[in-house]
From TrEMBL:
Family annotation (InterPro entries): PepSY-ass_TM
PANTHER family found in the cross-reference section: IRON-REGULATED INNER MEMBRANE PROTEIN-RELATED, PEPSY DOMAIN-CONTAINING PROTEIN
Pfam families: PepSY_TM (PF03929)
Keyword Cell membrane annotated: no
Annotated organism of origin: Corynebacterium imitans
Bilayer-crossing regions: 20-43, 156-177, 198-226, 354-373, 397-423
Annotated keywords: Membrane, Transmembrane, Transmembrane helix
Protein name: Membrane protein
Amino acid sequence: MSTHRSPRSGLPAFVRRIHFYAGLLVAPFILVAAISGGLYALAPTMENVFYRDVLTVETQETSTPLADQVAAAQASHPEMEVAQVWPSSTPTESTRVLLIDESIADNDELRSVFVNPHTGAVIGDELSYSGVGELPMRHWISALHKNLHLGTPGELYSELAASWLWVIALGGLYLWWRTAGKKVFTGLKNTSGKRRRVLNLHGVVGTWLLVGMLALSATGITWSLFAGQNVDKTVEWLGGDAEPIETTVSSTPGNPLTDQQVAEQSAVVLDAARAEGLTGQLRLFIPEDTSQAWQASERWTPGRITSDAVSVNGATGEVVDKLPFSELPLFSKLTSWGIYLHMGVMFGLPLQLALFALAVGICAMIVMGYMLWWRRRPTKGALAGVPGRADLTGTDWAVLAVFTVAVGAFLPLFGVSFVAMLVADRLLARRRGAYAA
């Protein structure tokens, strides 16, 4: 006798099947993203420990002028131009001077020379990456999370994970709510049998982690290869892009700054930025030539939720333009907050531990999901343990079509994989029907 499952009516059965397919086929990508993401969440603190010999210095009563610190870094690599200066902001923090190393092919890479702000001595030299100045170890973990060190093709895995995470999370909550009702946060008391206990724990953990999973999905999508472009276009269409800060000092073409000008003007720009109320750790961007102004912006560091910026004429110390964070469009603010929350930067170690715990929770949920599948694993006539087929009406299919087109246009990898699941589901249904006959 056939043991195939009979069709179930309506949305619940369909959501259950999609949750099953996504859990079986997409969850491995989410698992990899969660493991690498949990590691990356702790990377800022690991970096501070691993590179403490260049990131920190002992407090001393004396200090060296910033111009002399920059000059020391220039002297260590006279063939390289200065791209940025990160002045020390505390007695125990080193100054970082970022140089353009032509031998490095990747445009995201700069060479960081670390200088003791008290003695003016160069204390280290490391490659650095991205706007937060990731050092090699942290960058390696970042690339693992982003693309598994496979370059652009590898970014497809993380985009697929981010595109499906919110669907799996919301679908799972819906199914759990139908089972547990008002007890979605506490779980059911009568859970006889191991499978019921695992299901109960799976549902409760998923409910508690829901907001975190949705946040990771949304912020991860903004960085993705294809969907990220749609996010950028949407923000631009909504007028959410910030206007760039004005940096023009003169309409007359200028000349590149000499090493001496860069060193001397860095101190002028730092003083001007501090006078304008920029209190955080700063990044000073060297202009292309003398017709342009320097830019100074506050770095995103633990405890900072805003980043103001000014442009300064390095020759005179005159402020050319200001860009307070408070005046940025809402979407620009949300983008910044989302990025630095996702990276574990904004609130330091407490946020990093919370993200790590979230990653562990996601991994545990995936393992429990596979445990549930294994306990209803394939038997003769029950292909792959798939839940009962959904008996959808014409209206249901119309709504599903609209959802697929709308969401799939914005999240291409989700759209393609979702359609592939529907096609596979139809083929399985036919095969099951043939077996039953």
